[in-house]
Write a structure and sequence with these properties.
heterodimer; A: alpha/beta; Pyruvate-ferredoxin Oxidoreductase, domain 3; Rossmann fold; 4 domains; eight-stranded mixed β-sheet; 19 helices; 37% helix; B: alpha/beta; 8 strands; globular; binds thiamine diphosphate; binds iron/sulfur cluster; PFO_beta_C (chain B); iron-sulfur (chain B); thiamine pyrophosphate (chain B)
Chain lengths: 566, 284
């Protein structure tokens, strides 16, 4: 089984509630699921949809065709009816077309009978649940679980609304009945945003500073929620410049700290990024990519900021860049970003995107929590002469012992100007060179910390090369093409900078005849360019997309076939 | 009382001889000695400019950051460890120009720290351009026709934004300034002193004599908790300019309102894997 349900309507109609309910129910019934959230940059009206894919096998991307359409308005029918298959089912408020395919349910009428048209989503969700095979008990318990926080009388009304929706679809026949055959749940649904916030908490992040910007805000919302139970403080700054500098101040004083923003905000943070680079202060920044330039498409997805992240701020200094592809990677790499940023005293950037952050993915294995978090901080006791402490002492590794201000006799002196080992400003040529070299001396060890790409059939003749959250769609496209007999594989990078050349080269040089194809959500194949600079491989083709909507496997397969690349 | 030599820095001073910044530095050392804050318990955060170089010339922990951002860095440090004694040294360009937005919000937030604005009414380090506080009509190489905007009034702006401790000082009156700094540091909240400081190299208008001719000290025995009076005093910048505390009033301090910080500084908390495990599991 592999079905897709699409719930569409105007912003403010409760589409997310319906989607969350249906996907949670399918998950609980033991199916794999993933869901994408597609919405416009407005609070009411327009067209939004929530698309759920339910399968017996793991899924990491959505599909183009729709098997069950729940249309809360006519617009939804008009936009999505071309994606329907012959025997797809459509539940709608009224019969919007003359095709006879729609099962009219009068969602609004039924909701009003219960007391308010606010209950439209409950009516629709219950109808959807029954069509998917749920019995009355399952519908009741799903509604109860979802609305458990509500007052008694409101819960009653929701149950009443659910009953109305449930009764209305008694005669609807849908070919798959996943909820009629429940088994053991495979895991929980989780968004990339939640995974990043949890990764930060697991890394013992204590401070979050942010300025709201889609699609990064949800990360900070989760961190704020977690701050009620953990030693975390989140501050909404006056702008991204302040947010990034708050992070640096906090980190300088000894707390692990992070900020999350999107491209426009990251532009403002580049100044602070340089400050972190020069003062060797750890900091973690999530850049939640959305299409640009400038304000671009605020609620859409992209992979256009890779070059920017690698080069942001002036002159050369080392930094880490991660691009997780799944919630599990998002959690683990966030934790790793904090760890490495502190170990090497360099900034770490996590490139996420709207697709990863706002979609729901099934988490099969629980997140791993460290028993102990390693810190890289020295105190007076670690020094023969705390009075002579030098924050930027020259070492072979390039890493100087980092003490905290006002925690002992050692004075911590830090300057954004080029400085001597003791932190005071200098213009001395030899010291400048030494300091530049000291900072760069960290690079070889930093590279060794990064893992190479995840692979599928790396010895194949044609290799798709991708990074970040496109991984799911690329893997699925690879599987589809292999099933059709193509000699194809893929390499999926998620730990990107400093470029893990040793790890990558092993896989890239296997066969001199290999044909490489870049699959990216940007216009210039940014990662392919970086790969070329670092490995000398050449690309035979590109599948690029920059319309702000995520890849599907079918899109990649079609593009490859059209270009006669597979 | 402690010896103020303990704040001597071995680092060579880089200010022009005769610069008003020396008076501020001297007053700071005196105030710190009077308050008995040893160098290892002091954190100075600064931006960029001549004024922002201050911490290099004084023995302390410091973060000499980037233009205009000192207050944000100081806030971050305070959130991480609210036991820190933080002084911020900034110039009028650094604080009111590049850092204007942060200044406004620092006054609103009221985090316990002291801001000293070295106000020479000119950009010193970049060699003599007009600053936000330069007088209307002042000519410079970059403003040959004279400044055609109104000068920014730091104390008045701080008052409007809700600051609870606002003062004006003059670097030529070290003892008085030291007293102001002590009162500011002791104030529980955001305290700001806008300090007139003659730039002997670039500002030919607001010379030491110019300030001396205008400045008068406020009566220290008077309560200064009336906003209207404070505003009037802050706007008295013509022939007579008052120095002293313009306004001081108890206000809700920022850190003290953060529930999560009641148990002590964040950096002193221990990593607790069991609690974390539980919270993470419940949160998913
Ligand atoms: C982002 C940025 N812009 C500009 C500068 C150049 N700059 C250095 S100091 C300064 C002005 C300093 O003026 P002020 O704050 O009044 O301090 P003063 O030097 O007069 O003490 C400027 C514009 C810089 N360092 N960084
Ligand atoms: S340029 Fe002006 S403010 Fe700067 S050190 Fe010289 S006299 Fe002082």
């Amino acid at each position: 089984m592999d079905i897709t349900i699409l719930i569409g309507g105007a912003a403010g109609q409760g589409i997310q509630t319906i989607g969350t309910l249906l996907s949670a129910a399918c998950c609980k019934a033991g199916y794999f699921a993933m869901a994408v959230n597609d919405f416009e940059s407005r609070v009411r009206g327009g067209h939004s949809f929530f698309k759920i894919r339910i399968s017996n096998a793991p899924v990491y991307a959505s599909r183009e065709s729709v098997d069950l359409l729940i249309a809360l308005d006519k617009n939804t029918w008009e936009i999505h009816s071309p994606s329907l298959r012959d025997n797809s089912v459509v539940l709608a408020d009224e019969d919007f077309s003359s095709s006879g395919r729609i099962v009219p349910l009068a969602f609004e009428q039924l909701a009003k009978e219960t007391g308010s048209n606010l209950f439209i989503n409950t009516v629709a969700a219950a109808a959807g649940l029954r069509v998917l095979g749920a019995g009355p008990a399952t519908v009741q318990s799903t509604i109860k679980d979802h609305f458990s926080g509500l007052k008694e009388d409101l819960l009653e009304k929701n149950l009443d609304a659910a009953q109305k929706g449930f009764e209305k679809v008694a005669d609807v026949l849908f070919e798959e009945q996943p909820l009629a055959h429940p088994s053991v749940p495979k895991g929980n649904l989780i968004s990339g945003a939640k995974a990043i916030a949890l990764g930060a908490a697991a890394a013992d992040c204590r401070i979050g500073a942010f300025y709201p910007m889609s699609p990064a805000t949800s990360i900070m919302q989760h961190l704020t929620d977690l701050s009620k139970r953990l030693d975390i403080v989140v501050e909404q700054a006056e702008d991204e410049i302040a947010a990034a500098n708050i992070v640096i101040g906090a980190s300088f004083a000894g707390a692990r700290a992070m900020t999350a923003t999107s491209g426009g905000g990251f532009c403002l943070m580049t100044e602070a990024l340089g400050l972190a680079g020069m003062t060797e202060t750890p900091m973690v920044i999530v850049n939640a990519m959305r299409p640009g330039p400038s304000t671009g498409l605020p609620t859409r997805t992209a992979q256009g900021d890779l070059r920017f992240a690698i080069h942001a701020s002036h002159d050369d200094f080392p930094r880490f860049v991660f691009a997780p592809g799944t919630p599990t990677q998002a959690f683990e790499q966030t934790r790793k970003a904090f760890y490495l940023s502190e170990k090497y005293q360099v900034p770490a950037i996590i490139l996420a995107d709207q697709y990863l952050l706002d979609s729901l993915f099934l988490l099969e294995k629980p997140f791993f929590i460290d028993k102990h978090v390693e810190r890289f901080i020295v105190t007076d006791d670690d020094m023969p002469d705390p009075g002579g402490y030098e924050r930027f002492a020259v070492t072979d590794s390039g890493i100087s012992p980092r003490a905290l201000p006002c925690k002992g006799k050692a004075l911590v002196k830090v300057s954004s100007d080029e400085h001597r080992p003791d932190g005071h400003i200098t213009e001395d040529i030899a010291i400048r060179n030494t300091m530049m070299e000291k900072r760069r001396a960290k690079l070889p060890a930093m590279i060794e910390e990064l893992d190479g790409p995840e692979t599928v059939s790396p010895d194949a003749h044609t290799l798709l090369i991708g990074w970040g959250s496109s991984a799911g769609a690329i893997k699925e496209a690879t599987d589809l093409l292999r099933d059709q007999g193509a000699d194809i594989g893929c390499l999926l990078f998620s730990q990107i900078w400093p470029f893990p050349a040793t790890a990558a080269e092993k896989m890239l040089k296997n066969n001199p005849d290999t044909q490489f194809i870049a699959v990216e959500m940007n216009a210039e194949a940014q990662f392919a360019g970086i790969l070329k600079e670092n490995t000398n491989i050449n690309f035979s083709g590109y599948v690029l997309k920059y319309d702000g909507r995520p890849f599907t496997a079918q899109f990649i397969v079609d593009a490859l076939k059209e270009k006669e690349l597979a | 009382m402690s010896d103020k030599d303990r704040y001597e820095s071995a680092y060579e001073n880089q200010w022009c001889p005769g610069c008003g910044n020396f008076g501020i530095l001297g007053a700071m050392k005196d105030a710190l000695a009077q308050l008995n804050i040893p160098p290892e318990k002091l954190l100075i955060v600064s931006g960029i400019g001549q004024a922002a170089k201050t911490p290099h010339f004084l023995k302390c922990n410091f973060l000499h950051g980037i233009h205009g951002r000192a207050l944000s860095i100081a806030l971050g440090a305070k959130l991480a460890n609210h036991d820190l004694n933080i002084l911020v040294n900034s110039g009028d360009g650094d604080c009111y120009g590049e850092g204007g937005n942060h200044f406004i919000h620092a006054a609103r937030r009221n985090t316990d720290m002291t801001l000293l604005v070295h106000n020479n009414q000119i950009y010193g380090l970049t060699k003599g351009q007009a600053s936000p506080t330069s007088a209307w009509g002042m000519t410079t190489a970059m403003q040959p026709g004279g400044v055609i905007s109104e000068p920014l009034n730091g104390p008045a702006l701080a008052l409007t934004m809700g600051a609870g401790f606002v003062a004006r000082g003059f670097s030529g009156n070290k003892e008085h300034l030291s007293g102001l700094i002590q009162a500011a540091v002791q104030y529980k909240g955001f305290s700001v002193i806008d300090i007139f400081q003659p730039c002997v190299t670039f500002n030919r208008v607001n010379t030491a004599q110019w300030y001396k001719d205008r400045i008068y000290e406020l009566d220290e025995t008077k309560d200064r908790d009336d906003f209207g009076t404070a505003m009037t005093l802050a706007r008295e910048t013509g022939d007579r300019i008052p120095v002293g505390i313009l306004y001081t009033k108890e206000k809700k301090e920022f850190i003290s309102q953060i529930k999560g910080l009641e148990k002590g500084p964040l950096i002193d908390r221990h990593y607790d894997p069991d609690r974390l495990e539980k919270v993470v599991q419940e949160y998913i």
